[in-house]
Amino acid sequence: MPSRGALAPLMSHIGVRTASELVVHGKDNRGEPVESAEVGRVLPVPEALAELLPWRGLRRGGTVAVRGATSLLLALLGPATSAGSWAGVVGMPGIGVLAATEFGVVPQRLALVPNPGAEFAPVVAALLEGMDLVAVRAAAGIRPEHARRLSARARHHKSVLLSFGAWPGAEVELHGSTARWSGVEAGSGYLRTRRLVVEAVGRGAAARPVRRTLLLPDSAGGIAAAEGATEANPARPRELAG
Amino acid sequence: MSAPRLLVVWCPDWPVVAAGQATGVPVHIPAAVLSANRVLACSAQARGNGIRRGMRRRQAQGRCPELVVFDDDPARDAALFEPVAAAVEELAVGVEVIRSGVVAVPARGSARYFGGERDLAERLIDQLASSTGVECQIGIADGLFAALLAAHRSVVVAEGASAEFLAPLSVSELDQPGIAGQGCAELIDLLNRLGLSTLGEFAEIPEREVAARFGTEGVRAHRLANATQERPLDRRRPPPDLSITQHLDPPVERVDAAAFVARGLAERLHAGLASRGFACTRLNITASTEHGEQFSRMWRCAEPLTPAGIADRVRWQLDGWLRIGKGDRPSSGIQTLHLEPAEVVLGSELQLGLWHGAEQAAAAERAGRALVRVQGLLGEQSAGTPVVQGGRGPTERVRLVPWGTERSVRDDPELPWPGRLPSPSPATVLVTPEPAVLRDTGGAEIELTARGELSAAPHVVRSGWVTGLVSDWAGPWLVDQRWWAPERAALLARVQVVLTEEETGTQTALLLLRAEHDSPQWMVEGVYD
Hints:
Chain A: This is Protein ImuA. Chain B: One of its GO terms (biological process) is DNA repair. Chain B: It holds the Pfam family IMS. Chain B: Belongs to the DNA polymerase type-Y family. The complex is a heterodimer of chains A (242) and B (529). Chain A is α/β, with parallel strands linked by helices and 242 residues long. Chain A has seven helices and eleven strands. Chain A has two domains: 4-29 and 39-172, P-loop containing nucleotide triphosphate hydrolases (Rossmann fold, 3-Layer(aba) Sandwich), CATH 3.40.50; 175-232, no CATH class. In chain A, the strands form two sheets. A nine-stranded mixed β-sheet of chain A has the order 5-4-6-7-3-8-9-10-11, sandwiched between helices. A two-stranded antiparallel sheet of chain A has the order 1-2. Chain B has 529 residues and is α+β, with helices and mostly antiparallel strands. Chain B has three domains: 5-166, 2-Layer Sandwich (Alpha-Beta Plaits), CATH 3.30.70; 240-349, 2-Layer Sandwich (Dna Ligase, domain 1), CATH 3.30.1490.100; 428-528, no CATH class. In chain B, helix 12 (255-275) runs antiparallel to helix 13 (307-323). The chains are: A alpha/beta (242), B alpha+beta (529). Chains A and B meet through helix 4, helix 5, strand 5, helix 6 and strand 8 of A and helix 14, strand 12, strand 14, strand 16 and strand 17 of B.
């Protein structure tokens, strides 16, 4: 019989959780804040996104997919890097670093590997070992067995794998849609805020879809919940003639 | 507890000499090396014109308009110094590079061989002048610090008389890079304010009192002033397995490739030492070539070496060997590299500052190792961290700095940049902007008028990337680039447009860019997604 010490990494590898995690897990569905003992296991996210995620944050060892809005991904990276974590971004040569800093991402702790090419999986694996958060975008979809292996690697190293785009076996998927911008009008002003509907769908605990309307970015350049679920003024398509 | 008898060879104003050698500027023209806009070193000619260390660039150029100014480049200094170290080594054994421009040799054995310390010094000066053409001064004393100050004055201090030699000198002499620690300037200032202006006065205070009041830094300086060993004698010889050897396949012949290898090795050496609680203060670097030649050099440092410090020294040394003139340089690529920590101290001396936070430093070290591994897979330029700098557009305001190179900011982001876009910034920036067509309701292409306005309100955007009806727009933000150089001047205009899908009502916001030159063209520069 293997000793307890030998068993623990094995269990974490196959995704077995400890009892305490399950307790916290149960609480989350009622929307209560995370126990303080669990804080080290969950990386902080903006308040507005916490409501959408089980554990109210990014659980170490988990895999989260983000679709529809790059800024949603950037907003997820902000609080953790401000708190001292490192974040890696693989395969996203067009990532807006300036926008990332506006969401609180610290550029000194943002490692970019824009073009991993054929070495995608080894690069992601290497970064998962050294950083708390690794955001990836697989160029032409990823084979399920590779995805599983990388998710297992994240679990093993207690880092969070964030995929921009669908990821087979992701625990939670955040999907941004129905964006509405405000701030510009007929040549004056500038893009200021965007209302974005974000839907979270997941497996297990997060199976029940949650939908929220967020301001991303809000008037302060951050992220906030939109007051009232009512939509802003409907689109006003420009008159065709005159 | 007397300090070993050392001979120090000092090349005055080495950074300037090296820069002059590298660029071919003759010695009779006043020259200075500047770092962060202040004079770091200057030639004797420049000193004659009133230039001093620490002077601002403008002040220096005001005093001496013909002053030639070089940028500080430690790699250049170290690489060009290698021939000097090699020339000293021809006459004496046990050469240690203290910093670029200063080498130390144990004096006893060599002096006996050449029939006395003065004869040895004379021979060394001849040797350096004839083989490298470099001016140098030599000093001999007990202990490294006294020997260096003796070299500054070209004197031989009698055995056991180092303390008397140091006593009348000013405490500001303690500030010697490579020998004293980093907090030295502060200590000197403090001693001066306390009225302890000479090394002798400082040395008279008992060591215990110094330790109680001035901490580790103070004790080290006190030992220097006393001409005793800089460090206590309890250092250990490291067990041999801490040294590391790396076989290079293919052999390294270029400096940039060497630098890359150096970084990985430095990380490994440092991690190996740190796992046993050690840090390295003297490092022996050995390289062997395909043809079996062997080169070796000892580097010594006051502060325990960090991974970056080790990597720098290995890079400088390899650069030095690969740059030497024909005959002395390696006849083929470097095939094996061997790093040996010749002297280690307890790692606690390499403690991280209280304010940096040990946890964050550990995270940074872990992340650094991961990045080095990625660079090993994809090449040096492939991975790094971004720097936010000054500029207008989202592309020019961000630069990716390869991991391991200095994160320097080129343009100050805090300065006002007219025409800069307001935040929020686009979350996606296209690596190569996508050509687009922007038309008004009548189907005519939108242009920029002479007054810097759009010719009409945009109605539709068409590009290979996205096509849609414009529901709203803002701008243009104008940038008049390089108007002072007509042949490279360009008027840039940026416009934000919001496209609305008719069925779902969902909106996409784009950043469009237009450069007004021979064939103006709208391009999609970024997406606010």
